[in-house]
Amino acid sequence: MNIRRGDPSDSERIRRVSARSCRLAYEEILDDKTLIETIEDPEMTETIREWLDETHDDDRVIYLVACGDGEIWGFAQVLTGERAPGRVDDEEAYLKSLYVHPDRWGSGVGSELLSTAIDRLSDRITRLSLDVLVDNDIGRRFYEKHGFKQVGTGGYEVSGVRYDTVIYEKSLVGRP
């Protein structure tokens, strides 16, 4: 497996990983399919491409892809500073997304993406936070296994539909 910075040319493959992962993880827990439909929309490829192009040289964005066999197996995106407005202070990073293709669940891809993203954070970052859908047991188990602790609840809105989340945080003090 190779973990590298995401590139605009990866956009369609990233969208497909996201769509497949979301469908399997969320279809049983979401009453409204708006979130899944949004992620599965082929126009999302252009949104991803634009984001990767815009943030390519931005040190406040870590966007990694895990590759193997000519495919993208997963991706992770960590934001700091103004890239995560209202979400973090100067010592905190925010894990915006981490998705692994379901064919690779349990193979260590997600763990490697998370570890690599943390390694690439500035030493001034002392904690990492994230949101997970309340009923996303797969995601919650993954983050708890990696030392994240629940610190609150929140939510976000997509196309007028509110999704409740659990907020997790992990201390990065003393990381190697």
UniProtKB/TrEMBL annotation:
One of its GO terms (molecular function) is acyltransferase activity. Keywords: Acyltransferase, Transferase. InterPro entries: Acyl_CoA_acyltransferase, Bact_Acetyltransf, GNAT_dom. Residues 1-173 form the N-acetyltransferase domain. It comes from the Archaea. Its EC number is 2.3.-.-. This is GNAT family N-acetyltransferase. It comes from Halovenus rubra.
